[in-house]
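Hi Prof. W.,

I finally got the Alpha-1,3-glucosyltransferase prediction working! I wasn't sure whether to trim anything, so I left the full sequence exactly as given:
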Amino acid sequence: VFNMAVQSDGWMEPFLHFEVHRNWLAITHSLPVSSWYHENTSEWTLDYPPLFAWFEFGLSKVAQHFDKNMLLVENLNYASPETVMFQRLSVIFTDLVFIFAVRECSRCVQVQKVSRDILDQPSFVLSVLLLWNFGLFVVDHIHFQYNGFLFGFLLLSVAKHLQSEHLQGALLFSILLNLKHIYLYVAPAYGVYLLRDYCFTRDVKDGSIGWRSFSLLRLLVLGGIVVSVFTLSVGPFLVMGQLPQVLSRLFPFKRGLCHAYWAPNIWALYNILDKVLVVLGVRLKLLQEAELPRASMTGGLVQEFQHSVLPSISPATTLFCTLLSILPAVVSIWRRPRGARGFLRCLLLCALGSFMFGWHVHEKAVLLVILPLSILAVESREDAGIFLLLSTTGHYSLFPLLHTPAGELLIKVCLMLMFTTFSFTALRRLHRGKGSLLRPLEVFYLLGLVAVAIACEVVFPLSPWKHRLPFLPLLVTSVYCSVGVCYSFLRLYLSLWRSDCKNVSKTRVPSL
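And this is what came out:
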């Protein structure tokens, strides 16, 4: 309601993704299925999996009752009030999936003690952290996407595993994977966990695998669910011989290592290190400025980034680094599953490892970690600290998505302050009496984030550098936030290692 009111006051023009999804509505409504992944009138071609294309097709049947002109492929950048209204309402309506998923997750929270005070109830705090998540609100209801709908499937799948409904969880994740392929990030966690915890029915006393307990029937049922979903989604395009074309749209490796705005990950730090070395090399006359790639001296905020001093990164390199980063987490749940919460921790590490080292990562992908981490944050003091650090850093890294002036600066600052204040207050209250949730160095880092925000959002627009170095706020935001994200990744792994150590000590047989 708040968002629709702001839109009607004319504060916000439709963002890029309005046109992306309007174009997809037009493609799926106006063209035969065989043309969906070939149509390229607009630069915003269909690049989501087939099941999402069918989702857009279903929406188009409703959209025609609002404004039929939005469903014409040639109507590029069409944004009538009826079109914007429909797209806003479609996001709000599909968020019902997310709301239901939050309800299911809240029912899975482990409660140490019962309290009548609602702020002392982990299930209530979790509901607020998820339903009022600042990043999701910005990405879906201002920037515009359907992430709430998609995250609903993810959280519902996680909830089903927490409830030991493994087949339902596998079905939901298979559907999700065919709606948006970014969730391949967490597929290793699902695959290993289901094989280890569902297909092997029991362990030996020391927690290792009981090989004789393997159930071929369970594996066949699980495989049947996955294959059925993929067949329904991809099958028509496979029959038409268009699978290579679909895959080329889903995995466009020509887009370059980094997105136009560097996601706050390890490659942002790698890029800035290359730039620092270039500047030093030029000043020390070790490099000739005229011979350097143009992007290296103008900010590099383009899709293709060519490094000048450090080796350029290939898709194969990012894949190797990603697999290496998630390997310890996957091995951990294979050796000692620790139930559904062990799976959830592995899912978080797979998501964050892929965000850290993946190819052409979008800044919005950090929500793939922040939202599921909310579940652990209300149960564990250590996870609450990681959540506060990562959510504050990750949410601020989304600020450049709202790059239009004045009114939206006030909106995004107020919304983030409200969410962050509640997060700190509620989690401190839940875990009170157990010490501070954040270490002094972490508090100092977050205070630095405030200084970065003031410099980028207030000081820089008024400075003479605004026209000379327009990319500078993006670069500073990306690099500073990268430090916090990388640190959170290490803390998550440290918590996994501590958990493994505790489990080993519990299963160790005392010497006589």
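Residues 1-14, 296-303 have pLDDT under 50 and may be disordered. Does that look reasonable to you?

Thanks,
D.
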